[in-house]
Amino acid sequence: MLATYMGNIDALAEVENEVDRLINICLTDLGLKDEYLPDVATPNESNDVNDYLTVLKERVSLEEAEEFGYSKRYPDFYLVENFEHELDEADTTHSEIEQLVNNVARSGDYALELLDSGEVSDEAVATSGFHPDGLREFVGEHSSGCNGLVREKLFDGRQPEWNAAQAAAANGINPQEDPEFKRLEEDWAACMEEAGYSDVNYYSIFDLQQEHIFGTITTDEFDQRQKDLAVSDALCTEELDLNEQHKEIATRLLRESIEANEDEFFAFQELAEEFSSRAQDMIQQDTVLGE
Q: To 10 degrees, the CA torsion angle through 76, 79, 83, 89?
C-alpha cells in the first residue's frame, strides 16, 4: 500500500509539472521572451515517504542540531539576503517583469491591477516582449490567467474530479486532529518549556526566521538562537522517542486513509495517466492559445 501511495505522489507531481510547462507555453503565446519564463523543475521520483509526512516527519537529530541547527534541513532560512539586497536599475526592471509574469500565470486580474496602477512600467512590459494591448485582451478574456486557462483546457470540465481524486489518494498525511498526535505535541511542548521555551510548536523556527527577515535580530543572533532551539528540540525528541511514535501514527493514518478511499486510491494513477497523456499531446502542439 505504501508503494501505491508513493506512486500516486509521483503521478501527481508529473501532471503538475506538465501543467507548469503548459503555462510557460501560454506565456510564450502571449509574447513573453524565453529568458523571462519561470523555471520548471523536473519532478524527482519520490523515494522517501518522510517528505510527505508534514509535521510527522523525522525531527532534527542532536548531532545535526549542535552543528547546523535547522539550517541544513531548511536552507531557505539563509536566503535572507534576498530581502536585504538593494536592487539596481536593471534588477528593478527584471523584478517588475517577474512580478507581472507571476501574476499573468496565476491570475490575469492581478496582472491588470499591476498595469493599471503603474506598479509595472510600460518599459518593463516592452522589455519582456509582452504586447500591452494583446496582454490586456487576454486578461479581459481569461481572468484566471494562464494557470486557469491551461487547467480549463487540460481537464475539460473535470477539474473537480481531479481535485477530489487528489484529495482522496495523493495528499500528504495530516495528523493535526489525531488525539495521539495532540498528546505527543503537548508532551513535547511541556519538555520544551522545561528547557526554557514557552508557547512553542513545530513551526516556531519559522517565527524566528521572521524576526531575522524583518531586522528584529541580527544574523549572528539568529544563527545562535536557531541552533539553541534545534538542540532543545532534538533532546526532547529523544526523551519522548518522538520519531518512532510519529512513524507509528503515520502508518496508522495512511492505512485508515487507504481503507476509507480504497477505490479512489487505487484508481488515481489511471486517472493521472489519462491527464498526463492529454498534457503531453498539448505540449507537442506547442501552443495553448492557438487552435
A: -120
pLDDT in tens, 119-135: 888 888 888 988 877 88
For residue 48, report the phi and psi dihedrals to the nearest 5 degrees. Answer: -140, 105
Q: Is residue 290 part of a domain?
A: no
**DSSP tally for the chain: helices H, then strands E:** 14, 0
Total number of domains in the chain: 1
Is 155 within the bounds of a domain? yes
The H or E element spanning position 152 is helix 145-155
Q: Are 8 and 257 in contact (CB under 8 A)?
A: no
* Cell numbers placing 276: 498526463
The CA distances from residue 122 to 33, 55, 131, 215, in Å, are 16, 45, 10, 33
Q: State pTM to two decimals.
A: 0.74
What 3-state class would DSSP assign to 57?
coil
